[in-house]
Design a protein that fits this description.
The protein has about 350 residues and is α/β, with parallel strands linked by helices. Helix content is about 35%, strand content about 15%. The chain folds into two domains: about 240 residues, Aspartate Aminotransferase, domain 2, CATH 3.40.640.10; about 100 residues, Alpha-Beta Complex (Aspartate Aminotransferase, domain 1), CATH 3.90.1150.10. The strands form four sheets. The chain has a seven-stranded mixed sheet. Helix 1 packs across helix 6. It is globular and about 60 Å long. The structure holds pyridoxal-5'-phosphate (PLP). The site of pyridoxal-5'-phosphate (PLP) has 12 residues, from helix 3.
């Protein structure tokens, strides 16, 4: 059985070279006589893997020295609680911008820990756009402002960085981190689950500015206290060692591709190919405002929903999997993360054309 084109939203496609390297190193990592899975997280081998992964991530994102990089567990959904526990810093309010399903989850969780002010929302038009900064109604003394910078389900993406003044900007970047260069210094905190654009599920990446940590609520579990984790190099508890190793291989792969500037060019080309086809088609539609469209997650609908089944079946027969949209929005969704080669997008567009011709 060959490899398919996997359009899953996550866990998602990984670069083939990374999987091959992991396979080659599976039984004996660099002459250690062990798999990375079998190593002590306190041993010199794993400490080197961990340090190298962090160094590569810092290099790729040009993370300033006054930011900590934490490799944690719990996923982005755990961060929805961990962020308010750590970042309220004595304040009682946090501002949230609601742009879709993942924002809604973040808001719901944060309400357990603070008063949530929904500063702006695009619910009025079914989450098809990012509300302009001028329309946001921020609180006077918020602990932070939270956005989901790429809504994986709705397929909208911030192509700009909101200015929140002195109040730290927090972003859930789970589904587009490393898809483009980003000015980390504009954020107080960035978090991302690994299983979309980084590596295996089980690893959560947090990038946080030094001065924001150290004032966690007393109820904060130690493993989720950024300060304690920062002081122990993310090894307060046993970290997800194998996931960190694979993430490190993905970071190396990104560097070999030419870094995030080059990756962004490819992502622009891939997304452009797909959106251009959808826009000229009278058969498929994209529900998102053009300027806010995600380069990573491309939702689209067939005008005649009765053909959904046939569409998915035909895609599967052609080796294109996981194109069904999220159950909350229906239709289709193609997730085209960094590791999706342009050939996959070309194959998908070819199939869209063929399907439109035979059913349109
Ligand atoms: C997938 C996803 C999550 C959920 O991550 P978990 O690892 O399941 O906790 C949260 N936010 C965004 C934007 C996502 O894409």
């Amino acid at each position: 059985m060959g490899r398919v084109f996997n359009f899953s939203a996550g866990p998602a496609v990984l670069p083939q070279q990374v999987l091959e390297k992991a396979r080659d190193e599976m039984l004996d990592w660099h002459g250690s006589g062990m798999s990375v899975m079998e190593m002590s997280h306190r041993g010199k081998e794993f400490i080197a893997i961990h340090a190298q992964a962090e160094a590569s991530l810092r290099e790729l994102l040009a993370i300033p020295q006054n930011y900590k990089v934490l490799f944690l567990q719990g996923g982005a959904i755990a961060e929805n609680a961990i962020v308010p526990m750590n970042l309220l810093r004595g304040r009682s309010v946090a501002d949230y911008v609601n742009t879709g399903e993942w924002s809604k989850k973040s808001i719901k969780e944060a309400k357990k820990y603070c008063n949530v002010n929904v500063a702006a929302s695009s619910e009025d038009r079914n989450f098809s756009y990012v509300p302009a900064r001028e329309s946001w109604r921020l609180s006077k003394d918020a602990g932070y402002v939270h956005i989901c910078s790429n809504e994986t389900i709705g397929g909208i993406e911030y192509h700009w960085i909101p200015d929140t003044g002195e109040v730290p900007l927090v972003a859930d970047m789970s589904s587009h981190i490393l898809s483009r260069p980003v000015d980390v210094s504009k954020y107080g905190l960035i978090y991302a689950g690994a299983q979309k654009n980084i590596g295996p599920a089980g690893l959560t990446i947090v990038i946080v500015r030094d001065d924001l940590i150290g004032q966690a609520l007393p109820i904060t579990p130690s493993a989720f206290d950024y300060k304690q984790q920062a002081e122990s190099d993310s090894m307060l508890n046993t970290p997800p060692t194998y996931a960190i190793y694979i993430a490190g291989l993905v970071f190396d792969w990104l560097k070999q591709q030419g870094g995030l500037g080059e990756i962004e060019k490819r992502n622009v080309a891939k997304a452009g190919l797909l959106y251009d086809y959808l826009d000229q088609s009278g058969f498929f539609v994209s529900p998102v405002d053009k300027r806010d469209r995600s380069r990573m997650n491309v939702p689209f609908k067939l005008k005649d929903e009765a053909l959904d089944e046939a569409f998915l079946k035909g895609a599967q027969q052609r080796g294109m999997l996981q194109l069904k949209g999220h159950r909350s929005v229906g239709g289709m969704r193609a997730s085209i993360y960094n590791a999706m080669p342009i050939e996959g997008v070309q194959a998908l567009v070819g199939y869209l054309r063929e399907f439109e011709k035979s059913h349109g």
